[in-house]
Design a protein that fits this description.
Mean pLDDT: 81
Low-confidence stretches: 189-195, 247-255
Number of strands: 10
Distance between the termini: 53 Å
Order of helices and strands: EHHHEEHHEHEEEEEHEH
Helix content: 40-55%
Radius of gyration: 20 Å
Length: 255
């Protein structure tokens, strides 16, 4: 089925509120999913893959700062989706890069890492060059690089397959962000690197996807749409029950 950008954004926001996100976090997370879907990067599918994890997460467990200095910050994402753990981390990296010219932020123990792109798009739109890197624990072993030019809200995305997995390879459930005020950081690898390019999405391709989506609507799988509606309905039910409970308590007080 096809829906408008605003419909998708609105339903996702209600669904995240139903899961237990704070109002501002729910709006941010909805923006990230809708942004990816609008650019042909399968945001709803990525959300659906991690939805069961989101439903089990403790909303009170916030990202924990492990170490920082003027240029570097290392955070523990507490095993949460980037939709819960990434917003403050990206803002921290942005502030450091503005002050020092360059910053590196490493977020450990996080998942749904694809969905970070929308957050980074915002920062790039504010004039920051950004590259995000992460390794996916799958066969074949893949590495993904996402690069934004300052002032460009649309990234270049590359996914590589590592031909020869190093012996010291360890599971990697984190993400590394590099931000630079005045230096472009888009990846450029020559043929001598021991990697195979599996996917390449240049800025022009993603821009064309966005223009088409805004014109003709965004395609969303019916099953996933129904699941989001169920989660959105949860907040309506809970708010109604809370309202009734409040009314009942008031009547009891007046007896």
């Amino acid at each position: 089925m096809n829906v408008s950008y605003n419909e998708l954004q609105g339903l996702c926001r209600k669904a995240f509120s139903g899961i237990g996100f704070e109002e501002g976090d729910a709006a941010d997370a909805a923006d990230m999913v809708a942004w990816m879907q609008c650019h042909g990067l399968h945001g709803v599918e990525q959300l659906n893959r991690g939805l069961d994890y989101l439903l089990e997460e403790d909303p009170e467990a916030r990202p924990r700062l492990i170490y920082q200095d003027g240029d570097l910050a290392v955070l523990d994402g507490q095993g949460h989706s980037v939709l819960r753990s990434i917003s403050l981390a990206t803002e921290l990296g942005f502030a450091k890069a503005r002050a020092r010219g360059l910053s590196v932020v490493k977020i450990r123990r996080c998942h749904n890492r694809q969905l970070i792109m929308g957050y980074l798009s915002r920062l790039a739109g504010r004039g920051m060059n950004i590259t995000a890197f992460w390794r996916n624990a799958q066969v074949p072993l893949t590495e993904q690089v996402v690069g934004f030019r300052a002032g460009h809200a649309i990234p270049e995305v590359r996914v590589y397959s590592v031909r020869d997995v190093p012996e010291e390879n360890e599971p990697n459930d984190g993400i590394t962000l590099v931000m630079a005020n005045h230096v472009e950081l888009l990846p450029s690898l020559g043929a001598d690197h021991d990697l195979d390019l599996l996917a390449h999405h240049p800025e022009s391709e993603l821009l064309a996807c966005r223009q088409l989506a805004l014109k003709e609507g965004i395609e969303v799988d019916d099953t996933i749409w129904a699941r989001l509606k169920t989660l959105a309905h949860r907040i309506l039910v809970e708010s109604t029950e809370a309202s009734r409970g409040g009314a009942g308590a008031g009547d009891h007080d007046n007896d």
